[in-house]
Amino acid sequence: MTVDNELIRLCIDESPPRNQPLVAKYIRSFAFPVLSKLSPFNISKTGSYLEANKTAILQKYGPGAENDITSVLTKLNTLITDILNNKPFRELVSDNVDVEIWNKVLKDYSDEDGNRPTWLFTNWLYCECYIHRRIFEAFETSIYLKNYDPFYEQKMQGLVSCEDAMELLGKFLIKYFHKEDIDIKNLHEDLPKMFKCALWGNRCDLSQTGGDAIAQTECPLVLVDALQHLMLVDESPKAVDFLCASLNDATNDDKILDIILDNAGYELFTDLCLADYLITFKFVNTIRFHGKVIPWFISDVTTQDFINTIDYLSYKIKSDVLKELGKRWENYMKSGQWKFECEQFWTLPFSFGQIKSLDNELYTKLEESFLIISKGDLNYRKLVGDVYWNPTVPFIETVGNFKPSKLIALRTLKSDITCGLPEGLAEHVSKTDPNWLKEGKYAVIQVDGI
Ligand SMILES: O=P(O)(O)OC[C@H]1O[C@](O)(CO)[C@@H](O)[C@@H]1O
Questions:
Q1: Are residues 134 and 209 in the same domain?
Q2: Cα–Cα–Cα angle for 192, 198, 201, nearest 5°?
Q3: Which residue range or ranges hold the Damage-control phosphatase ARMT1-like metal-binding domain (predicted)?
Q4: What pLDDT digit, counting tens, does each position of 250-299 carry?
Q5: Which domain holds residue 388?
């Protein structure tokens, strides 16, 4: 019997129950294949990357890093074995500031007899976050590779491989920024396109491919129209009306936009384009980008990714328009109009509904916000509590008590969770396209408080 079969033997051959948080034991949920196939694949690809790049790593970190590589590989292999054998979770052992929290969560998820959670039977959001935290632990418990991001090069490669599409969007924007006669009608017409470029940027996510870059070659603006029929909910008109109306209020010159980022590479580029558009036309005055403090879900944006993306565009790329964009973004960072922040909460296994009680400082910060944009699938899962909602439950109900400010969620669907869909739509799409929830093919733009 293969280990995969062994896991299957422990599972239930049913869909997960509606309106409950996801758990991987339901074979017909997306969580099961992510746990039993995709996660082990991603972990083993991380190991293969280290082996393939050993010489370069030793050159950079010195010969002492050889033992580190060996120990990281052992830890990654143990992680795969633990998952595939549904072993109980263990405490984290590094000296990082978040370890106390993770170990407390482990205790909270253990039963009265002290039996620890296992991969198949515990809350799936916690489980998947724990997998990514354990990957990082393998590195941070080494000597030379403590701060090594094994996904950094692939993330930058993801950016480079999309240069053609970036150039097309860049040309459009630079021309636009140089025009002197842009009026409210133009803004009203074009702002939805900027939202949707950032939305579809979320398709390019390396966690689905073990780090292999997904090239985006088509013109992002053409794609916006071509993909419109794949938008299951499009509340962008509400967001656009709200933002355009706010331009009339000249008294408020302290409008902060918070963008809770997702992936580096092409997606980050499209987020920065949207941010530039919003700041150039004074929809907002300051933008705070929220990234990750440790490598997370393979391709999420860390400080290193953010800084080096802007640096790459400003100085290293061939294209003049992209250089010009890069320089604009560098200046926003220098002037403080843009800020990059990475709070610890985003790499903990909690939903956004828990921010208020667990991290009041962060919640208070988000209350200063004029508008919050949440990017991507994992942030969406955290927004709606990773609950397998009945698809017609309104989005504003699913976000629970996460109400610090007005909110826009831009998400391509890569997991089972849906909400706020019109009656019958989920049934209709699932009949014509059984994989509709898994591949980032469909998308939603949903708002709360607008
Ligand atoms: O990068 P995104 O859009 O947050 O997607 C991450 C998604 O990928 C997975 O890790 C695997 O499909 C999902 O569980 C997760 O929600």
A1: no
A2: 135
A3: 66-428
A4: 788 899 999 999 999 999 999 999 999 999 999 999 999 999 999 999 99
A5: 153-448
CATH of residue 75: 1.20.930.60
Q: Which residues pair with 302 in a beta bridge?
A: 292
Task: Examine the domain organization and report whether 363 and 248 are in the same domain.
Answer: yes
The three-state secondary structure class of 263 is strand
376 lines ligand 1 (CB under 6 A): yes
233 and 367 in a single domain? The answer is: yes
Both structure tokens of 229: 């029929």
Last residue of a domain, one of 140, 169, 188: 140
Residue 148 maps to a domain: no
Q: Residues 291, 439: one domain? A: yes
Which residue has the least CA distance to atom 5 on ligand 1? 377
Instruction: Say yes or no: 128 and 86 in one domain.
Output: yes
Does 34 sit in the ligand 1 pocket, CB within 6 Å? Answer: yes
The protein residue with its alpha carbon nearest to ligand 1, atom 1, reads 205
The per-residue pLDDT for 297 is 97
- CA-nearest of 340, 339, 363 to 351 is 363
Ligand 1 atom at minimum distance from 376 CA: 3
The pLDDT of residue 1: 44
From the list 23, 40, 135, the residue with the least C-alpha distance to 83 is: 40
Whether residues 236 and 112 share a domain: the answer is no
What number does the ligand 1 atom closest to the CA of 205 have? 1
Nearest residue (CA) to ligand 1, atom 15: 378
**Of 117, 111, 124, nearest in space to 26 by CA:** 124
**Domain-terminating residue out of 140, 164, 190:** 140
pLDDT of res. 4: 62
pLDDT under 70 in the chain at which residues?
A: 1-5, 204-217
What pLDDT score does 216 carry? 63
Same domain, 403 and 325: yes
Sheet architecture: strand order including 286-290: 231-234, 443-448, 407-412, 371-375, 256-260, 286-290, 338-341
